[in-house]
């Protein structure tokens, strides 16, 4: 049978100290709480004081608090674009409007036509994609637009030039039209501009001033960069970091600039797939009754580096809805 031993409490720290120094802990001085100084008053925090001061007083009319206007977050691209002065084109050129009219294209300064109205609709969609309008998410690098087609002869250059001409009259934007069809450039021929150094020359020679590779047209909002001299390593140059550096330089000092690229045919030249990686929007032109579905699928598959791909039907001869854009502007008088 186990014997229960009484529990022995361990001496406290004070009792051990008293035993060491020969002091009787039970006879130590005591402290009278009444003799203690009053406890200092706690200071109210600033937020509580302000809240008390701002509390409404019954019967007193308080002035309305001023509205605080929240500044919208600045666009990162616009901040970068403002960081350096814009590159000034070293060459000047006048667009051949008679040539544009002969090809049934948008003619700057001429009365509104059906084709002009069609491209007004197209450009509005592209602008909404990179401006975030109409509650749409902003497409990264959406101000860079590549115009391509699966095969030659389907209307990519026709679309690129018309779109650039339509965008050039926008109040908040200017346009740089880049001929990136290195093997068979045609932008200068369509616009009636003179040949000269351009995109490939700038990529091949980093010391060449970019201004020498650009043409300022007689339309204030339109600049053109030719394709330049052909290069046996055009795809490799376009795939290099040098291309992204060049494009960033072209955007400096021009926060509202839109870059339009006339691409080589996707299924005919490899640079098209490389260019897709430098843009935010891709428009693939489909020729009515000519572009095969298999060709279109192959082209879209090769251009997967671009996150936002759209199709544009070209050469339609019949509209089920019977719409006739442009005719409204030519009817009646201003008073009607």
Brief account:
The chain has helices at 13-21, 46-53, 76-81, 97-102, 114-131, 156-167, 187-191, 199-204, 234-239, 241-251, 271-275, 293-302; strands at 91-93, 144-149, 174-179, 215-217, 222-225, 257-262, 281-287, 309-314. The chain has one domain: Rossmann fold, CATH 3.40.50. Helix content is 30%, strand content 12%.
Any overview of this molecule?
By secondary structure, this protein is of the alpha/beta class. It has one domain (93-328): P-loop containing nucleotide triphosphate hydrolases (Rossmann fold, 3-Layer(aba) Sandwich), CATH 3.40.50. Helices cover 30% and strands 12% of the residues. The protein is built from twelve helices and eight strands. An eight-stranded mixed sheet has the order 1-4-5-3-6-2-7-8, sandwiched between helices. Strand 4 and strand 5 form a beta hairpin. Helix 5 packs across helix 6. The longest helix is centred in the middle third of the chain and has 18 residues, at 114-131.
Largest sheet: 8 strands, mixed
Biggest sheet, strands in spatial order?
A: 1-4-5-3-6-2-7-8
CATH superfamily, by name, is P-loop containing nucleotide triphosphate hydrolases
CATH class: Alpha Beta
Portion of residues in beta strands equals: 5-15%
**Which architecture per CATH?**
3-Layer(aba) Sandwich
Provide the gyration radius in Å.
37 Å
Helix fraction, binned, reads 25-40%
Low-confidence stretches: 47-53, 57-76, 330-336
| CATH topology call | Rossmann fold
Number of helices: 12
Oligomeric state of the chains present here: single chain
Number of strands: 8
The arrangement of helices and strands along the chain is HHHEHHEHEHHEEHHEHEHE
Global structural class: alpha/beta
Through-space gap between termini: 121 Å
**What value does the average pLDDT take?**
82
- Number of domains as seen in the coordinates: 1
């Amino acid at each position: 049978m186990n014997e229960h031993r009484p529990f022995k409490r361990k001496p406290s720290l004070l009792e051990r100290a008293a035993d060491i120094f020969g002091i009787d802990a039970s006879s130590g001085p005591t402290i009278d709480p009444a003799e203690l100084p009053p406890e200092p008053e706690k200071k109210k925090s600033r937020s509580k004081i302000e809240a008390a001061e701002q509390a409404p007083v019954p019967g007193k009319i308080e002035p309305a608090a001023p509205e605080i206007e929240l500044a919208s977050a600045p666009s990162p691209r616009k901040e970068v674009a403002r960081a350096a002065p814009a590159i000034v084109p070293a060459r000047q050129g006048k667009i051949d409007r008679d040539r544009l009219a002969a090809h049934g294209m948008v003619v700057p300064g001429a009365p509104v036509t059906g084709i002009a109205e069609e491209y007004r609709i197209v450009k509005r969609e592209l602008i909404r994609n990179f401006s975030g309008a109409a509650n749409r998410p902003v497409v990264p690098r959406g101000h860079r637009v590549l115009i391509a087609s699966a095969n030659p002869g389907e209307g990519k250059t026709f679309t690129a030039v018309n779109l650039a001409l339509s965008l050039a009259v926008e109040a908040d934007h200017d346009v740089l039209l880049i001929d990136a069809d290195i093997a068979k450039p045609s932008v200068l021929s369509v616009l009636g501009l003179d040949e000269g150094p351009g995109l490939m020359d700038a990529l091949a020679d980093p010391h060449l001033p970019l201004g020498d590779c650009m043409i300022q047209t007689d339309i204030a909002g339109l600049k053109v960069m030719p394709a330049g001299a052909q290069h046996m390593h055009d795809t490799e140059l376009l795939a290099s970091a040098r291309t992204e550096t060049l494009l960033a330089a072209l955007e400096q000092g021009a926060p509202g600039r839109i870059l339009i690229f006339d691409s080589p045919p996707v299924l005919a030249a490899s640079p098209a797939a490389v260019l897709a990686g430098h843009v935010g929007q891709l428009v693939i032109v489909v020729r009515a009754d000519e572009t095969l579905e298999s060709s279109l699928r192959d082209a879209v598959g090769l251009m997967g580096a671009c996150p936002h791909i759209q199709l544009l039907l070209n050469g339609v001869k019949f509209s089920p809805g019977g719409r006739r854009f442009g005719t409204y502007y030519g009817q009646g008088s201003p008073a009607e």
